[in-house]
Automatic annotation (TrEMBL), chain B:
InterPro entries: Ald_Oxase/Xan_DH_a/b, AldOxase/xan_DH_MoCoBD1, AldOxase/xan_DH_MoCoBD2, AldOxase/xan_DH_Mopterin-bd_sf, N-heterocyclic_Hydroxylase, OxRdtase_Mopterin-bd_su_IorB, TAT_signal. One of its GO terms (molecular function) is oxidoreductase activity. It comes from Fibrella rubiginis. It holds the Pfam family MoCoBD_1. The keyword Transport does not apply. This is Xanthine dehydrogenase family protein molybdopterin-binding subunit. Keywords: Membrane, Transmembrane, Transmembrane helix. Signal peptide: none annotated.
């Protein structure tokens, strides 16, 4: 599905990828090893997905791949294939996904930097488990760090969203 | 009712002008009511638009825009400050649009966020500005309707004259009001009549945050922007010797590799100019991933640094500091702290005859508490956009101290200050780290060299290992008891690397409550850089002191809360010594509130253990009760009850959020926070090794309560953080029967907690 070509500046190949992101096909020409995180941020101008650690430890970069939460810092663009990617920008058309609404209702954010990743993890959890227990929430969310300490509000917001 | 004067230093701090196209613009200096020492003198003549940091715009259509001035990193000032203006202006909050005020380089207002000072310093100015605008609108209506101003009332942005039945929106009177003189004195609302304040209002950026809008420094971009990363020495005490860029120059997307000197060798450091490594290797390329790949392959030779002397100039106070060379290690640090703690120290406070009290004591308890370096670990790593041309320098970044760094950048680039433009972005966390803006100087130098717009990005590893850490601390407490088991003497000795936690809190409790009291301190030099960290000194002092007071209470057979209240009673009736900084009633007030709200002393749930602690810092008072149970050797925090006195609560929903966050962060740092070094090299460089508190470790419930009063508001960023550490320690003692004296506590508990 992709063609190899030489880039003017470099000596190794870049490849063309046609990615399905937020319901649209986007074409990028990049090194196949490039993580989706940087494809989104640097090449597609989708900066909602955040860089926090680069080693799958913080969850700031969480997106949905085929509907499931994944860490985009560990997802090479070459591994995406035909699977659809959803980022925070594409979670809902008007910012009215039940999780987003619950986040506003509980005024969850402090600095807000981790929240896109938290929301994407929460939305994925509720999709597979619409009525999660406290323990389910802990298990699904413990990969997402928040230095500002908004965990208790996040849990409350997930419960609110699960009632919708 | 309070009256406020709009003059400061004989000139009005307000400037009112007409908006182009009609309407009214009120500019004011947020910090004019702050102490004169905090005001930076401006070159602009009095009466001109000097030092204006904040603005209210009223359009002819009645649209009200409030430009909030302070840098935002989650403390919610961007919502709170406009709420204060809107209250006095008497408008409907729904009508108000909030924008970030541009950081105007020609007008040196104080735009520093830190030390929980934003609201405390802005309170009077924000209210006066809102009230003055309202008064001028009333005047304009009085003239238009030919009625006495005193008969005009306002409500939700509308002016009314009852007798004639006339009414008009603010917009209709705004142009006329703009032509009127600024009133000299204005009446402020009584606190108990507030409609917007003390009522919860959601974060004005909420929707932008949950939809992933590019608000942060890392999200900022411009066409043609290059990406830069830096490589710093792997160890504290090292510097650059040489590097070979040949292998990476040809890597995909790489444009240049060079070294930069952040400051000249003889540079006299101003406040916040702290930096760890003065010479860095820089890699510039097209995209983040390509630069990251090259960074991994760069070969650099480092060498050890000798002792060096640095010049410092803190607000005109000049001194020379010797930074020792050599590669330091945490194990050696602890050994040296212990050794130094046994030597004589510099006396800070002395009441009565402490030596005598200890000499004649029937019993003495002595305990030493220590804590490690802590990394800030803001979720957004340091970054800065810069575009420097011969004509001007434009920077976009998150910074807690834009006006300080602006002067530094101007000096470093050799440009006049009015050629430096800084756009403030939202910060993905600050906690003190973003007061030290070496990364902005670095970005400016890189852009200048590249003659291109550049974004400098620190990797997580760079951010964690280029630390301006919370210092390593030690506190030794000794308590003397007479034969009847009365507390007769108290000695606190502070120490640390490279500074002691004491030195600013000698008037704080329990000083003033004990007849014979001694405080002294020592410090050991180090080349590991340290700085502000959510009240770095207070968070350690509170954690140790409040745990020690629990041991003292236990030795005296007293309930921890009763014991503290008895000491406070003593400090009120017959205070010992001078310069005690705390208000006894407010200190006792939070303790009583937390006692009542937590149901303290009314019997615990089976398997639940409780600890209490209280502290006063940064002008606010906070107390917590932690309830926890143990599971597989780990604490499960069932509930935290918090009581806080920060004066008038501006925005309860946001204030609670700050307190909840401080509780989680405090428990996390106490259990896990630990930055250790070996041969100068940090052992932790990412979140695989540096443990942060996670969802499953957070308290299940946090109940926040405020003391209701009408005292001018004080900050919340720092004050609730310090005491939670001791409340946790005291609850852990109840649960395990073991007192923990060294942070982090986690690795000393059950083995299922990883270190
Ligand atoms: S950036 Fe991907 S998990 Fe942290
Ligand atoms: S809200 Fe700041 S890191 Fe989560």
């Amino acid at each position: 599905m992709h063609s190899l070509k030489k880039n003017e500046l470099n000596t190794i190949a870049v490849a063309t990828f046609n990615l399905k992101i937020n319901g649209k096909i986007s074409r990028v020409d990049v090194d196949p090893a490039t993580p989706m995180l940087w494809v989104l941020r640097d090449h597609l101008n989708l900066a909602g997905t955040k860089y926090g650690c680069g080693i799958a430890q913080c969850g700031a970069c969480t997106v949905h791949l085929g509907g499931t939460a994944v860490r985009s810092c560990q997802l090479p663009v070459s591994a995406v294939g035909k699977e659809a990617i959803t980022t925070i920008e594409g979670l809902s058309a008007k910012g009215d996904h039940p999780v987003q609404k619950a986040w506003l209702e509980h005024d969850v954010a402090q600095c807000g930097y981790c929240q896109a990743g938290q929301i994407m993890s929460a939305a994925s959890l509720l999709k597979s488990n619409p009525k999660p227990s406290d323990e389910d929430i802990d298990n699904a969310m413990s990969g997402n760090i928040c230095r500002c300490g908004t965990y208790t509000r996040i849990k409350a917001a997930i419960k609110t969203a699960s009632k919708r | 009712m309070e009256t406020a004067n709009t003059n400061y230093n004989r000139r009005s701090f307000l400037k009112v002008s007409a908006l182009a196209g009609g309407g009214m613009l009120i500019g004011f200096n947020l910090f004019s009511s702050a102490k004169a020492a905090n005001l930076v003198p401006t070159a602009t003549p009095p009466g001109e638009a000097a030092g204006l940091t904040s603005f209210i715009k009223i359009s002819p259509e009645g649209k009200i825009t409030i430009l909030a001035p302070n840098p935002e990193f989650g403390q919610n000032v961007k919502t709170a400050m406009p709420m204060i203006v809107a209250e006095e202006l008497d408008v409907d909050w729904q009508q108000v649009i909030v924008e970030q005020a541009p950081f105007n380089t020609k007008l040196y207002g104080r735009q520093f966020t830190g030390g929980s000072q934003g609201i405390r310093q802005g309170w009077k100015s924000l209210r006066t500005a809102g009230a003055s605008a309202r008064q001028m609108l009333i005047e304009a209506a009085a003239q238009a309707w030919q009625v006495p101003a005193a008969e005009i009332t306002t409500e939700a942005g509308v002016l009314h004259h009852k007798a004639s039945g006339k009414s008009a929106g603010y917009g209709a009177m705004a142009s006329a009001a703009a032509a009127l003189p600024v009133p000299k004195d204005v009446k402020l609302k009584a606190v108990n009549t507030f409609k917007i304040l003390s009522t919860s209002h959601k974060n004005v950026e909420g929707t932008n945050i949950v939809t992933g809008k590019p608000l942060f420094g890392l999200d900022y971009r411009q066409p043609g922007m290059l990406i830069a990363m830096m490589v710093h020495p792997p160890a504290f005490g090292q510097k650059l010797k040489s590097f070979d860029a040949t292998p990476i120059r040809k890597m995909p997307g790489i444009q240049d590799v060079f070294s930069i000197q952040v400051y000249p060798d003889e540079y006299e450091r101003q406040i916040f100019d702290d930096r760890t490594f003065n010479e860095l290797v820089v890699i510039v390329g097209r995209s983040t991933w390509e630069v990251m790949q090259a960074k991994k392959k760069l070969r650099v030779n480092w060498e050890s640094m000798a002792d060096r002397v640095e010049k410092e100039n803190a607000f005109g106070q000049k001194r020379e500091v010797t930074i020792p060379g050599g590669l330091e290690s945490t194990d050696a640090h602890y050994a040296k702290m212990k050794e130094r703690d046994a030597q004589p120290a510099k006396q800070l406070r002395r009441d009565g005859d402490p030596e005598g009290a200890f000499k004649s004591a029937a019993k003495v308890i002595e305990r030493t508490y220590t804590a490690p370096f802590l990394a800030h670990n803001n979720m957004e790593p340091l970054n800065c956009f810069a575009h420097v041309t011969p004509e001007k320098a434009f920077l976009a970044a998150g910074t807690q101290a834009p006006d300080f760094i602006e002067r530094t950048i101007a000096a470093r680039l050799g440009m006049p200050i009015d050629k430096i433009d800084i756009q403030l972005t939202r910060m993905g966390g600050g906690f003190g780290r973003k007061a030290y803006c070496h990364y902005m100087v670095e970005a400016a130098l890189i852009s200048q060299k590249m003659k291109a717009p550049v974004k400098l990005i620190y990797t997580r590893e760079d951010d964690m290992t280029y630390g301006i850490y919370r210092p390593m601390y030690s506190l030794t407490f000794r308590a003397a008891f007479d034969a009847a088991n009365n507390l007769t003497g108290f000695h606190v000795r502070g120490g640390g690397i490279p500074e002691s936690p004491l030195g600013r809190s000698e008037g704080n409790f329990p000083a003033g409550a004990i007849d014979n009291y001694l405080a002294d301190e020592w410090a050991l030099p180090s080349n590991i850089t340290i700085g502000a960290f959510r009240a770095p000194r207070s968070n350690f002092i509170a954690g140790a002191q409040q745990a020690f007071l629990d041991e003292v209470a236990e030795a005296m057979g007293k309930d921890p809360i009763d014991f503290r209240l008895e000491l406070l009673e003593r400090a009120k009736k017959n205070p010992v010594g001078k310069n005690n900084t705390y208000e006894v009633d407010r200190y006792a007030g939070v303790l009583k509130l937390v006692r009542d709200k937590s149901g303290w002393g009314q019997g615990n749930q089976p398997g639940v253990h409780r600890g209490v602690a209280v502290y006063f810092c940064h002008n606010s008072y906070a107390a917590h009760v932690v309830d926890l149970s143990m599971k597989d050797g780990q604490p499960v925090v069932e509930r935290v009850t918090s009581a806080v006195d920060c004066g008038v609560v501006i925005n309860p929903i946001a204030a609670s959020n700050m307190i909840e966050g401080a509780v989680v962060d405090g428990i996390g740092n106490a259990l896990f926070g630990n930055l250790t070094v070996k041969d100068g090299k940090p052992d932790q460089s990412n979140f695989d090794k540096y443990r942060m508190i996670r969802h499953n470790e957070a308290p299940k419930k946090i109940d926040v309560h405020f003391v209701q009063n009408e005292i001018d508001p004080t900050g919340l960023g720092e004050p609730p953080f310090p005491p939670v550490i001791a409340a946790l320690a005291n609850a852990l003692y109840k649960a395990t029967g073991k007192r923990l004296y060294t942070q982090p506590f986690g690795p000393q508990l059950g083995k299922s907690i990883q270190g």
